[in-house]
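note to self — DONT lose this again. spent like an hour looking for the file last time. sequence + predicted structure for the chain T wanted, 244 res
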Amino acid sequence: MGKSIINNVFLAFVLFLCVFSLKTVSAESCDYKYRAEAAKVAKNVTASYEIKQNDSGGSYVAITVYNVVDDIYVSYSTTGGSTHDSPRNIFKYDVNESGTYVINDFDNDNVKKYTFKVYSMNPECKNLLRSFTLTKPKYNKYSELTECSYYEVEDYLYCQKWITTNFNMSEAAVVERINEQRKKYKQSVTTVCISCEQDAEYYRWLEKFNKIKKYVIIGLSIGIVADIVVIILLFRKIKEDSII
């Protein structure tokens, strides 16, 4: 009985030393150097979005997360729209063969803000390493208006197909803004054309002046040559007369 108690005490002591050693090693693995390296790795985590089409011709937003590696994981959540999603985690084993993780968002009616938070996989280093956001656009139904079919407003905010801003105004107000933009564009083009016509008139005058100057120079050159010839002939005449 006494021997069994001694063995149990010894076993408990060994387990205590193992646990203490593990904690010490873990604590030492979260020093300043480790945190600096983890922060550098976390800085490489980025995200971007792309508008894609499915097989049926419908559109959706594909959000790609880059550089999720072994030492970190990414937690993301969304705000905006009718619902707020709970945080979800992305680990290294979740990424695809190209080294990225893709989130397909089929909510085309709402602008959403994705919040990404990067953490270390080390349980002793639970502090947030990096946080960033990405705004997912929504489809702009006003882009289908007839007023948006004109080239002068194809890049105008209210006519863009995908937008990250909510228009808190009626359709009539949007149409009015679009028509105002078309009017401003036409006025600017008219102003530019008047300026171009003035420049063209100036260059026509300059071309005519250069032609006249050219003829004058040619005429003067011929006159000078003629004078020189006359002078030479006179000198010869005088010389011949003097010899006689």
